[in-house]
């Protein structure tokens, strides 16, 4: 039986400790609860079936990320839904001579110990869901799951510079999306 | 040599990672000292990362949890089904 750093991995432990992580990663990548539920079930069943043969031990979370990302991407291909239209590039929000085209307003200072309220969580989740897929995948893996860029590159078959480029644009898009909310809270 | 605001925005990812060269970091800091919009832009870029890191995982929806338990039980490997 496979083991994690904390001991034997049983189906029960996988369900309690890892199912919410799988579900949340799939939900944020797909931006759709129903699809995330299907992916979670597929992944959990795959994991349980292979539990006896898995010998990765501490590498279990890495393997679980890989299985989940692959299942989410396969689900998306099945849906064959693609981003439509031209993607807004935040780096175009500058004048020809390189100055900010719009007024840049401050946000409220974040507290030392940050606990998001329901409204803030919803605002951030909505902003993530509105990212174009190619940026959302990298953003979720980097800034929500906090995986290193090299690992994200392997998961998504991208070079590290491509991961960084997408991550940077995703953060700029997120900053723009969150600005509308946080600027109002300062007023 | 000086950086304009767009160049600063392009380099923010490397700046927060601490992967800029000394010269680039120095030029960027010099720009930030004299440009309020860029200082706010940099702070809010950083806040975006901090806020996202603070995003908690949502619990499994009850229906999904029940469906998963049933599916795992059906897949059966001789282990007891997950307890509630």
Order of helices and strands of chain A: EEHHHHHHH
Beta-strand percentage of chain A?
under 5%
Total number of strands of chain A: 2
- The oligomeric state of the chains shown is heterodimer
Largest sheet of chain A: 2 strands, antiparallel
What is the CATH-assigned architecture of the largest domain in chain A? Answer: Orthogonal Bundle
Proportion of residues in helical segments of chain B: 55-70%
Order of strands across the widest beta sheet of chain A? 1-2
Rg of chain A, Cα atoms, Å? 19 Å
Structural class of chain B: mainly alpha
Could you report the average pLDDT of chain A, rounded to the nearest whole number?
Answer: 87
Number of helices of chain A: 7
Biggest beta sheet attributes of chain B: none
Describe the structure.
The complex is a heterodimer of chains A (187) and B (84). By secondary structure, chain A is mostly helical. Chain A folds into 2 domains: 77 residues, Orthogonal Bundle (Rna Polymerase Sigma Factor, Chain: A), CATH 1.10.1740.10; 97 residues, Orthogonal Bundle (Arc Repressor Mutant, subunit A), CATH 1.10.10. Chain A is built from 7 helices and 2 strands; from the N terminus they run E-E-H-H-H-H-H-H-H. A two-stranded antiparallel sheet of chain A has the order 1-2. By secondary structure, chain B is mainly α. Helix content of chain B is 69%, strand content 0%. Chain B has one domain. The N and C termini of chain B lie far apart (64 Å). The radius of gyration of chain B is 24 Å and the shape is elongated. At the A-B interface, helix 1, helix 2, helix 4, helix 5 and helix 7 of A face helix 1, helix 3 and helix 4 of B.
């Amino acid at each position: 039986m496979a083991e994690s750093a904390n001991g034997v991995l049983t189906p029960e432990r996988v369900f309690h400790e890892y199912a919410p992580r799988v579900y949340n990663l799939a939900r944020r990548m797909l931006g759709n609860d129903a699809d995330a539920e299907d992916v979670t079930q597929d992944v959990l069943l795959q994991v349980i079936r292979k539990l006896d043969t898995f010998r990765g031990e501490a590498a279990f979370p890495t393997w679980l990320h890989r299985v989940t990302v692959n299942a989410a991407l396969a689900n998306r291909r099945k849906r064959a839904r693609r981003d439509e239209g031209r993607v807004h590039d935040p780096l175009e929000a500058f004048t020809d001579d390189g100055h900010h085209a719009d007024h840049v307003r401050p946000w409220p200072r974040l507290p030392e110990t940050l606990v998001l309220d329901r409204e803030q969580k919803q605002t951030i989740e909505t902003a993530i869901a509105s990212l174009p897929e190619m940026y959302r995948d990298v953003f979720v893996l980097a800034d929500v799951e906090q995986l290193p860029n090299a690992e994200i590159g392997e998961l998504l078959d991208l070079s590290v510079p491509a991961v960084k480029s997408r991550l940077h644009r995703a953060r700029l898009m997120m900053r723009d999306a969150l600005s509308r909310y946080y600027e109002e809270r300062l007023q | 040599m000086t950086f304009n605001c767009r160049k600063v925005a392009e380099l923010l990812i490397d700046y927060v990672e601490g992967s800029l060269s000394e010269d680039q970091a120095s030029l960027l800091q010099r720009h930030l000292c004299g440009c309020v919009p860029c200082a706010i832009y940099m702070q809010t870029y950083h806040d975006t990362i901090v806020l996202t890191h603070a995003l908690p995982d949502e619990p499994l929806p009850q229906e999904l949890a029940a469906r998963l338990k049933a599916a795992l039980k059906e897949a059966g490997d001789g282990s007891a089904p997950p307890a509630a």
